[in-house]
Amino acid sequence: MKIITHYINGQETKDSIRTQAVFNPATGDIQAKVSMASQKEVENAISHAKIAQQTWSQVTPLNRSRILFKFKTLIENNIDELAMLITQEHGKVHDDAKGEVIRGLEVIEFACGIPHLLKGEHTEQVGSGIDAWTLNQPLGVVAGITPFNFPFMVPMWMFPIAIACGNSFILKPSEKDPTVVIRIAQLLTQAGAPDGVLNVINGDKEAVDVLLTHNDIKAVSFVGSTPIAEYIYSTASAHGKRVQALGGAKNHMVVMPDAELDKAVNAVTGAAFGSAGERCMAISVIIAVGDIANSIIEKLIPKVNALKIGDGMTPEMDMGPLITRAHKNKVENYLEIGIKEGAKLVADGRQLSIKDREGGFFLGGCLFDHVTPNMRIYQEEIFGPVLCVVRVKDYDEALTLINQHEFGNGTAIFTQNGEVARHFCHHVQVGMVGVNVPIPVPMAFHSFGGWKRSLFGPLHMHGPDGVRFYTKRKAITARWPTVMHNQTEFVMPTMK
To answer: Choosing from 112, 165, 280, 388, which is the catalytic residue?
Structure first.
């Protein structure tokens, strides 16, 4: 049985005492076991990271950037291998996994520009004979805790920018699909990163709690569910750390009566069922405005029933399995809840069976009609291939529903009316908005993050906010001895 260990100080470590199974979601078989780090093992990784950071922070931004350029090339040269590792442990189809790698590459490309991004500000002669300037300096050792649904991309939101800024990094990936992260760390070492700059710790709450409380961890980044995000934020903040913790989502797509219906239906089918709905930016609710709902349902049912579902390594599949049997059971329980609450299940994927993959964690596409805001299937994040249709009378009711929801991660509107779209962009209380774009994930040179209970902390991830998060600003005011005043001053200094 393959054992997936940790990557500390430039090398894979010995097995931990505790392990956990890693499944192939397409077959249901255990394909590996992953080591679960103890407190001592995490502390060892932090110790190595602290030593490495002291030297790494003195490497010039240009030379750090050159290592990231080499790292980018290695990722590009190994894209098929990386995508295969994602598919084998997560289950998403291979082309989708390649898309994930490409979106992660964008952040490396952004981080390669760190010499420019770290520049401070300078004011000459801010006072008589006085100059003032600012510096952006690294924090020290920082940590990231990442989810199973994007085992490659979400770590890339964090560590390339962090290490480009001169920090060292401790990465705790999901124990459900950890192999690709170990490969990433190996490639970064191959690119020339010093040992200890990026360390990977596999584990559970025992490992996480060390990262949240250890004095040498200066900042923590997290992506996952809202209850855990809130725990990460409150615990790490109480121990004096910077925190950015991205939580859950319930992403609404408003379809106006004037929308190009075929385009809207095609868009929502991919956005709802791609990656089996296991995306924090998946569309899980359609808000059908006016009398358009019947037409949407009529066009959606055959598309949902026609989804090509199978092993993610099989060519031309639309959707693969869910990550684990436990998660599949959880999603199916939500289907029962929705039926009991009075929603109409017009497409039911529970009877799906894949030939030669009967033990896999497959669930077909599911579509609910006549969902109302008081239902749990509307209120809670299901994180599976389940799409809900809510019928409203007008645009104002649609906007109110979105703004009243506890989550505010992503949303979209499909319309041909520029005035309505502009009003929506201005007034909707959501962090990321699409206009005729179903999954409005920002490019790496912008920042990713939601509002309300979809984000804990003031800064979003990657882009400009990523640089701000992983650096501390120092303001310097200087006057040289040749122009020093010779008298003692007791009043608040002012610039003259």
So the answer is: 280
